[in-house]
């Protein structure tokens, strides 16, 4: 099995078996103000929202996780089937293996999502580090691979720096992103992979014409930590030590959400989002939707029904938060003013000083 595909399988195994969670999203410092007289009927709350011109039943995204190894086909099939059934959005993991390797089994791990989710909002995924090599044409092939409704370009340079085989040439990425945003047939999302996006970077991306920003901030799965496990397994102890040192690096998700919203009008909040209440807090901070990845992994291994069950739990938690803040629609929730306390407030104040 080629190195890129093996790496995908390693990532899933490590996430399932090892401690690769960090804390500090900042959501614990965000409190929604209780409305004792909501004056709405809970059963009439409308969670629907629009993203890239597609109607979603709720502002929830199954974040990009996997693909590129035959072992991941079942996971993507179950995730996509659940997204189809519940009417939420889903992203696939990096399509690098599908673009670079001529292997039908690897391609199926991606193409399966559209096979089982003909109507769902699905987005593809390529790395910013590979854009200069790929060009718009190769990214368009990634779109065609899954009949994608949008394309995510992921920023993962800390992860690359920890990988013994990582791509650490970050030159020219912004120009390449701008070319893709200008020339691709579908909307472009730029997303981090667990370290957040600052206000300044969000502004540069907005100027480059990207359609959305997914902050993927600090506080969930640490890819630096994942690569530390991989590096240690191949005897790259110095790289592993660097991965351990930087496993809590980045902007907390709540902070990154606020900063990105200052610069762009379409922000997805992810990175340690673990509940429908977290999604509600993210929307109150200005996000259009909240994204989760790791919480879906174990249910995806069990089957479509388990994924649907989790989605329905998230929707009920979100609906409850909307009810007790008097928010009958997602736009109404975005208009509420949360209270931000503690370290998150200090962080935001320092950044705005």
From TrEMBL:
GO CC terms in record: cytoplasm
Enzyme class (EC, first level): isomerase
One Pfam family this sequence matches: FMN_dh
Xref: InterPro entries: Aldolase_TIM, FMN-dep_DH, IPdP_isomerase
Sequence positions that bind substrate: 7-8, 94-96, 159
Keywords, alphabetical: Cytoplasm, Flavoprotein, FMN, Isomerase, Isoprene biosynthesis, Magnesium, Metal-binding, NADP
GO molecular function: FMN binding; isopentenyl-diphosphate delta-isomerase activity; magnesium ion binding; NADPH binding
Sequence positions that bind Mg(2+): 160
EC number: 5.3.3.2
GO biological process: isoprenoid biosynthetic process
Residue numbers binding FMN: 64-66, 94, 125, 191, 221, 272-274, 293-294
Cofactor(s) the protein requires to work: Mg(2+); NADPH; FMN
The reaction(s) this protein catalyses: isopentenyl diphosphate = dimethylallyl diphosphate
SMART domains: IMPDH (SM01240)
All copies of domain FMN-dependent dehydrogenase, residue ranges: 169-335
Subcellular location: Cytoplasm
Family label: Belongs to the IPP isomerase type 2 family.
Job description of the protein: Involved in the biosynthesis of isoprenoids. Catalyzes the 1,3-allylic rearrangement of the homoallylic substrate isopentenyl (IPP) to its allylic isomer, dimethylallyl diphosphate (DMAPP).
Stored NCBIfam families: IPP_isom_2
PANTHER family in UniProt: ISOPENTENYL-DIPHOSPHATE DELTA-ISOMERASE
Assembly and interaction partners: Homooctamer. Dimer of tetramers.
Protein's name in the database: Isopentenyl-diphosphate delta-isomerase
Species the sequence originates in: Halovivax cerinus
Higher taxonomy: Archaea, Methanobacteriati, Methanobacteriota, Stenosarchaea group, Halobacteria
């Amino acid at each position: 099995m080629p190195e890129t595909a093996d790496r995908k399988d390693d990532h899933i195994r490590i996430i399932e078996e090892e401690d690769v969670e960090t804390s500090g999203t900042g959501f614990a410092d965000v409190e929604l103000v209780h409305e004792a007289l909501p004056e709405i009927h809970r059963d009439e709350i409308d969670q629907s929202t629009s993203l890239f011109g597609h109607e979603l039943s709720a502002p929830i995204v199954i974040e990009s996780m996997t693909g590129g190894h035959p072992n991941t086909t079942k996971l993507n099939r179950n995730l996509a089937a659940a997204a189809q059934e519940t009417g939420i959005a889903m992203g696939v993991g990096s399509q690098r293996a599908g673009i670079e390797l001529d292997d039908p089994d690897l391609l199926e791990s991606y193409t399966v999502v559209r096979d089982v989710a003909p109507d769902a909002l699905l987005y593809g995924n390529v790395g910013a580090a590979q854009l200069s090599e790929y060009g718009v044409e190769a990214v368009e092939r990634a779109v065609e691979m899954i009949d994608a409704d949008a394309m995510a370009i992921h920023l993962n340079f800390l992860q690359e720096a920890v990988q013994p085989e990582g791509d650490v040439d970050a030159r020219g990425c912004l120009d390449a992103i701008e070319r893709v945003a200008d020339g691709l047939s579908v909307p472009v999302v730029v997303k981090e992979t667990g370290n957040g996006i600052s206000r300044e970077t969000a502004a540069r991306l907005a100027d480059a014409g990207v359609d959305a920003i997914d902050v993927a901030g600090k506080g969930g799965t640490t890819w630096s930590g994942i690569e530390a496990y991989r590096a240690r397994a191949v005897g790259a102890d110095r790289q592993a030590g660097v991965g351990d040192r930087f496993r809590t690096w980045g902007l907390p998700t709540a902070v990154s959400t606020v900063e990105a919203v200052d610069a762009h009008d379409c922000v997805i909040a992810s990175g340690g989002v673990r509940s429908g209440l977290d999604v509600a807090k993210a929307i109150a901070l200005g996000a259009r939707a909240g994204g989760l990845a790791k919480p879906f992994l174990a249910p995806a291994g069990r089957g479509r029904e388990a994924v649907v069950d989790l989605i329905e739990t998230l929707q009920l938690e979100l609906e409850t938060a909307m009810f007790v803040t008097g928010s009958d629609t997602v736009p109404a929730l975005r208009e509420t003013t949360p209270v931000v306390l503690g370290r998150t407030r200090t962080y935001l104040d320092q950044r705005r000083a």
